[in-house]
Amino acid sequence: MRFSFRALVASFFSWFVVVASSALAQTSPSTYPPIQLAMIEGLSGPFANTGDAVYRNLAWAIERVNARGGVRTKLGLQKLVLKQYDSKGQNEEVLTSLKSAIVDGARIVLQGNSSANALTLIDAINKHNEREPAKRVVFLNYSAVDPALTNERCSFWHFRFDASSDMRMAALVDVLKQDATVKSVYLIGQDYSFGQSVLREAKRQLALQRPDVQVVGDELHPIGRVKDFTPYAAKIKASGAQAVITGNWGNDLTLLVKAAKDVGYTGKFYTFYGNALGAPAAIGEAGVGKLIAVADWLPNYSNPKNPNASERFMQSFRQRFPKPADDYVHMRMQLMVEALAGAIHSAGSSDAVAVARELEKAKVGFAGQTGEMRALDHQFQQPLMVGVMGRKGDAGVKFDVEGSGYGFKVVRSLSSFQAALPTSCKMVKP
User: What proportion of the chain, given as a percentage, has pLDDT over 90?
Assistant: First the structure.
């Protein structure tokens, strides 16, 4: 068999093209491994609806990042993948979920619906990262608001994207102090670290801003265990309190406001989470002008610098999730995912230390809202606003909540500078 030199060259060239094409295929953006995110949250039990609602927000934010091609690292474009781990809201299950997530390859953990769970995660992650530096984990917190998380229990590995309960309470009482009709209040909350801190700060803020207001009730109840709040509502009514201050969330809030309506309580509710997850529908017409909520953002807010941004954002969310029951949207979760994507891009990888150092410098804007991370304690600094419940179609109430026919008119807006509070954090950094 004879081979000409020209045939030999052609054969070699064909082999080279095949090998080169194979190498390119192995390194094409579509084949780069995705970056895994682990959402550790209560997805069953009394607060399962809050976990499901958070997942929709995070999944939607991640969809937008991936629609842009993902995040660019030193490898190339990598997609984000979100996996759910059901903690059932229990600390023991949180630890089990964290171990599973790390084994599965996740180096970025997201959680928020329980401050007790968040404190457990911080301790576990601190120990894990010291013990296994090759598998370090970053913790992004979207809702756990116990002040300790960015004060005495602050950690280099933890970043909070919600306002602390102290920040929220200061904003609420800033509105209450303008209401001369309120001379007495009833404090009620869930009996764990967060609920305790809310009532403690309520008393402190009232002493500072409304020392003339009398606290006629101060009560904690088991979290997630009360099925009928009628006895509590009856005590509130009997106390003569003209307003209730509560940090209750999920079904503990929905059942409380429903019971108050049923016993004929006519006072106001100053809440952390009264604008979602069934609370407006549960209190109904009795809440118009009386159900007050503080949030990082409300759908009916109009930014003077970008007045249509919130409206466009809300419309796009409802297009993605058209069912009224799915109508739970939070801007901070969108900002958090955008900040994470930017940090991974700047770090060039999903390495925990590199991402954490970039998150410390994060400044992000989306749909007319902006915020930035404070490196001192890893507390995200963003505006806060307070809204009062009204009927859909009333002035300032274009969007209702969960198809209830009721929405929230913004009555007070605080800049990130006005909402900021000092910290006692003494962070140890690697």
Answer: 85
Question: Between 251-262 and 230-239, two packed helices, what is the crossing angle to 10 degrees?
Answer: 60
CA 137, CA 351: separation in Å to the nearest integer? 8
Structural domain includes residue 403: yes
Distances (CA, A) of 224 to 45, 189, 299: 9, 11, 28
Are 278 and 388 contained in the same domain?
yes
pLDDT of residue 328: 86
Residue the block writes with tokens 């709040």: 229
Tokens linked to 339: 């900040």
**Beta carbons of 292 and 271 less than 8 angstroms apart:** yes
pTM of the model: 0.89
For residues 265 and 395, membership in a common domain is answered with yes
Amino acid identity at 91 = N
H or E stretch covering 78: strand 77-78
Cβ atoms of 191 and 155 within 8 Å: the answer is: no
Please count the structural domains in the chain. Answer: 2
- In terms of domains, do 77 and 125 share one? yes
291 occurs within a structural domain:
yes
**Residue 185 dihedral angles phi and psi, to the nearest 5°:** -135, 155
